[in-house]
Amino acid sequence: MSPSANEIDDEAALWAVRIDARGAEAEQDPELKAWLAGDPRRAGALLRAQAAISFLDRGRALAGSTPLQTPSSNRRALIAAGGVLAALAGGGLWRLRPQRLDTGLGEIRRVPLADGSMVAINTSSTLEIDLKPKAREISLKQGEAWFQVAKDPERPFVVAAGPVRVRAVGTAFSVRRREQDASGVDIMVTEGVVEAWVEGVDAPRHRLSAGGRLVLASTTATPVVESASDIERSLAWRNGEIALDGESLEEAARLFNRYNSRPIVIEDPDLAKERFVGLFQTNTPESFASAVAATLGAEVRVDERAIRISRARAS
After folding, report:
1. CA 279 to CA 284: how far, in whole Å?
2. What's this model's pTM, rounded to 2 decimal places?
3. Which pLDDT tens digit goes with each residue over 97-114?
4. Which of 43, 118, 130, 154 is positioned for an S-S bond with 98, CB 3.0–4.6 A?
5. Using one digit for the tens of pLDDT, what is the confidence trace for 2-29?
6. Pair 31, 81 in one domain
């Protein structure tokens, strides 16, 4: 007989407390992995429980007090019984200020939200998160983020990126503010359906389902025809990777330069047009340069300021 949702939440609360106390060591526990594999509902329950702990500690920090150091049993009871909200309300902390999340150059973060959603934040990005009783409002100030949204039809989940709005109930999608077009927003859907529009523009709203991609600006909407695998490849950054499948070296260099302070420079215009395939870590531009040298017979010169790739000189 399958466990009830309440039983799963209780078990998740216990695991969340263990992970909170033991850190990365608990996350590698074979017993935890077996528990997660036993029911598809458990991963979401664990994320919600971890978010609840973060929510408690953050609330007390905003109030100027130290994070809760309650015994594990009491801490687990607060989470599992819904006492998180009661505790915050009793302490006058329920009306929290919007949460700001930033990433530096080359940094990628995964952050559980208090509503059970999860956000993955790409390099050099800034978000503001405001979880209200009747709405969940996210403002993407710069960069890119991928959202896995917990279902809650009574609280719409809306991401604002400049004038563009993306609304979901329970789905997964990414939003990116494009560097080359300050008003352009790139939207990719990996699960479910989202609705996108430009605030203040009298035009029909766009519905995107899983595998859909749209570049939306104040005056134009450009659908991008891609397969689901292409979208997953575009989102390889969530795992700290860059997946190339025929991009030019010029485009590949631009991707690596989003994550690294020492840029890749393709010095030969014809070489910059060459296509390349491979899977690389975002923080290892040198390995990409070495692969280009080995595959295309290029020459690589590395100094403090740049990684320079050019055609090999004739001997």
Report:
1. 11
2. 0.70
3. 678 999 999 999 998 888
4. 130
5. 777 767 877 887 777 777 767 667 677 8
6. yes
